[in-house]
Write a structure and sequence with these properties.
heterodimer; A: mainly alpha; two-stranded antiparallel ribbon; 2 strands; 66% helix; 5% strand; globular; B: 76 residues; mainly alpha; 0% strand; lipid-binding (chain B); membrane (chain B); transmembrane (chain B)
């Protein structure tokens, strides 16, 4: 199958080693392209936040941009958790900005400058780690605040007594599935979008290789679709970051207020 | 039928689920717009619930896409 197509849409997800760092036992720990893009995203975020934290009475454009993001997340936390949620706003804000920055950087056309563009969030290892981080914060906060009473999360209010054998089991499964659904959503959404873009790009390349008539007939509609899909992907990048932050805040709400 | 052909057919069948999720996502946003136009004052307060519904509908489509890709790459 792979020998038919000239473009391999999965090649973009390969993690390449940049230089060696150290060994842990038999495992090699190297600085990879994935790590490089995470460092770049962190630096960009740092510059973005430093530039906007001037606390001027009449804010400039940059400060308005930063305050727009912080206000958006703190408003979301306030609406979903209430005043108790203020403590966890920095975590959710960092999570949101980091995921948003990685998603958007992965969409930028760095290939034009000979760089290897790479979407860090298209790897399950990364999104899985972020999801486990959120999930463990939910667990720690839940048990810390409520002790063993936290298990009442699995028995919603108004459960009829004759369903007590079934509802907690379903609630437990839906609780345990949360980190997987959180990680899978972000990972598959980013992977699917990038595979789609590469498939359309390969249509153009294969069309041109088949001759000028086919190249124009296939290439122009594919190019038009790709422009539209790029816009859609930008929307998806934002929505996925927002959904990750939103669901984290909802899960935190379960841990803080029970339900 | 050999395993490769069966995997490819299965991948195609799994991709139907992605289309079904498209109906679900459209339903979520369509219903939201319909009721938001009836009562625009209450619409902004429901945005969180809108995206929860969107996320739930989308996740199922993405899962079927994942199964399709896994089957396709196994056959390819």
């Amino acid at each position: 199958m792979a020998d038919q197509g000239k473009v391999d849409p999965m090649h973009q997800f390969e993690v390449q080693k940049m230089f060696d760092m150290f060994h842990v036992g038999n495992h090699e720990v190297a600085f990879t392209t994935s790590a490089m893009w995470m460092v770049i995203a962190g630096l960009l975020l740092w510059v973005f936040m430093i530039g906007g934290m001037k606390r001027q009475l009449v804010p400039g454009r940059w400060q308005v941009a930063v305050e727009g993001f912080t206000g958006f997340i703190s408003g979301m936390m306030n609406a979903n958790i209430g005043p108790e949620g203020r403590k966890y706003t920095p975590y959710v804000f960092s999570l949101f900005m980091f995921i948003l920055m990685l998603n958007v950087i992965g969409l930028m056309p760095f290939g034009l400058f000979g760089l290897h563009p790479f979407t860090v969030t298209s790897h399950f290892a990364i999104t899985g780690f972020l999801a486990i981080l959120s999930f463990s914060i939910v667990l720690i906060v839940g048990f810390w605040r409520h002790g063993l009473h936290f298990f009442s999360l699995f028995v919603p209010h108004g459960t009829p007594w004759w369903l007590l054998w079934l509802i907690p089991a379903i609630e437990l499964v839906s609780f345990l599935v949360r980190p997987f659904s959180l990680a899978l959503r972000l990972f598959v959404a980013m992977t699917a979008g990038h595979v789609l873009m590469k498939v359309f790009a390969s249509f153009i390349i294969d069309g041109i290789a088949a001759g000028p008539a086919v190249g124009l007939g296939v290439g122009i509609p594919s190019m038009a679709l790709m422009v539209g899909i790029s816009g859609l992907e930008l929307l998806v990048a934002g929505i996925q970051a927002y959904v990750f932050a939103l669901l984290t805040s909802l899960y935190l709400n379960d841990a803080i207020n029970l339900h | 039928m050999d395993v490769q052909a069966a995997s490819l057919i299965g991948a195609g069948l799994a991709a139907i689920g992605a289309g079904m999720a498209a109906i679900g996502v459209g339903n979520v946003f369509g219903s939201f717009l319909e009721s938001a136009l009836r009562n625009p004052a209450a619409a902004d307060g429901q945005q969180g619930r809108l995206f929860i519904g969107f996320a739930a509908a989308e996740l199922l489509g993405l899962l079927s896409f994942l199964i399709a890709i896994l089957l396709y790459l196994k056959a390819a």
